[in-house]
Amino acid sequence: MGPIKISGSEGQFSAHAPLATYESPVWPSVGRGAKLSRLTENGIVTTLIDEKMTRSILLIAPDAAVANNTARQLQTEFAELAAVVGQTSRFAELIGMHPQITANLLFIRFEFRTGDASGHNMATLAADHLIAHILTRYPQMEYGSISGNCAATKSRPRSTAS
């Protein structure tokens, strides 16, 4: 579709964007939106706030106290967790960790820098290794999910538009 006119913190440009859908009624609507972007002075205005990839894992504890103690201990072991990530890729870097507890469930949202790659696979591989490491160090915890529904993706405005 396009071209779509985009402007913002990364500059101003026009780009064609793929539209992957079999819902043919959507095509004219998206086409009208692309046309409208070209009729305005700035087009679609974006602001790049941050550039990272996240994965939110889910671990299950016997109770909330164990989940809380594990979360607190993991926060003191950030350097060790970063080293685990460093072994999975020469580009992946652990830059943040945000635990959240709901009852006996421990959600941990890991933030990664992934260089110039979008980093979907890189972040998933790193999260998988982090889970294995955590479960080895904390045997009272159980695997819940590699995707705890709190993850985000990294999009580069000059190459994709969402």
TrEMBL record:
Which terms does the UniProt entry file under GO BP?
coenzyme A metabolic process
Which PROSITE patterns does its entry note? HMG_COA_REDUCTASE_4
Its recorded name reads Uncharacterized protein
Q: What is the lineage of its organism?
A: Bacteria, Bacillati, Actinomycetota, Actinomycetes, Mycobacteriales
List the SUPFAM superfamilies hit by this protein, alphabetically. NAD-binding domain of HMG-CoA reductase
InterPro entries linked to this entry: HMG_CoA_Rdtase, HMG_CoA_Rdtase_NAD(P)-bd_sf
In its UniProt record, a GO molecular function of this protein is: hydroxymethylglutaryl-CoA reductase (NADPH) activity
Q: Which organism is it from?
A: Mycobacterium pseudoshottsii
